[in-house]
Amino acid sequence: MRPVRFELHRPTSLEDALAFKAVYGDEATFHAGGTELLVALKARVLHYDHVIDLKQVPELRDIHVREDGTLVIGALSTHHVIARDPLVRLVLPGYAELSENVANIRVRVAGTLGGVLCFAEPHADAPTMLCALDARMVLASPERTRRVPSREFHLSEFTTAREENEILVAIEVPPSSAGTRSAYRCFGHTERPAVGVAAAWSPNGPKRLNLWAGAITATPQPLSETEEAANVLAPDLPYEEVWASLSSVLAAEAARIDAHDDLHGSADYKRHLVSVLAQRAIKASLT
Ligand SMILES: Cc1cc2nc3c(=O)[nH]c(=O)nc-3n(C[C@H](O)[C@H](O)[C@H](O)COP(=O)(O)OP(=O)(O)OC[C@H]3O[C@@H](n4cnc5c(N)ncnc54)[C@H](O)[C@@H]3O)c2cc1C
């Protein structure tokens, strides 16, 4: 089916993109790679009279490291670009690896990081890893620019903290996370993950491990008891010793974690996968 006709706007600055949205309000939506939006428009699940294509806005594509060490990834960066970006590969190899394994090459070349975050379909990889990395979302509206922690960005299925008139400009990974030993492991029998788990170790500060599970409920969840058990471990222990200390607490926590039955599997199956994938993510982050 073809989408209902709409007018396409192609602004070349963030200011103009926000201005189009201010003029057309609820009748307009933003378009990035279109891998989710165009499917919904063609199925006529969504309808807009105006579509604002963000692809010509250069500041949404930039990837750089600030002087303070913060890694900034423009929201219009595709999964493919992120996977190959030399800075991301250097500073956050675990995130580059995640991007390299999203979906298939057609989706990776067109689909953007901002698109997957704003669409908020729970069976996605990026939200889980960005929670473990303590990332922030940079949102711009005509009135202000604000930052929302990744852990507060996803509110439920297809719902985020982004306000209707805001554009997700960039994702910031703070210096305490950039350079962390981090890894993400997922499994699914469709192109989207049934379960994903991210582990990130902080080089300093009292909190040692961030361990998050995603795709099992509407929003990612921390494995807090396992994180706490990791906080008392001596720094720089080899994986075998870390695992000996964490395995029983992780098994107990994974067996109780909130999970939903859906087409990707039963809640019990997902709980089992959480324990398996968490071990793999911890191992990959330490070896
Ligand atoms: C077959 C298939 C398999 C997939 N498998 C995976 C997978 O394994 N893992 C995974 O993580 N994901 C997977 N995905 C999801 C994929 O990552 C997303 O489709 C893609 O990243 C969305 O980006 P986009 O640029 O195409 O978004 P679009 O479709 O252009 O936009 C999606 C939504 O976000 C809004 N939006 C987009 N950018 C912005 C912005 N900067 N500011 C404000 N609003 C914005 C749009 O208005 C729209 O509502 C899969 C998708 C498909 C179709």
Q: Residue share in helices?
A: 25-40%
* SSE class: alpha+beta
Q: On the 0-100 scale, what is the average pLDDT?
A: 94
Rg from Cα: 19 Å
Bound small molecules, by name, code or SMILES, are: flavin-adenine dinucleotide
Count of discrete structural domains: 3
Distance between the termini: 49 Å
Return the CATH architecture of the largest domain. 2-Layer Sandwich
> What does the overall shape look like?
globular
- Give the uncertain stretches in residue-range form: none
Q: For the largest beta sheet, what order do the strands appear in spatially?
A: 4-5-10-6-7
Number of contiguous helices? 12
The fraction of residues assigned to DSSP E strands is 15-25%
Largest sheet: 5 strands, antiparallel
- What would CATH call the class of the largest domain? Alpha Beta
DSSP strand count? 14
CATH topology value of the largest domain: Uridine Diphospho-n-acetylenolpyruvylglucosamine Reductase, domain 3
> Topology as H/E string?
EHEHEEEHHHHHHEEHEEEEEEEHHH
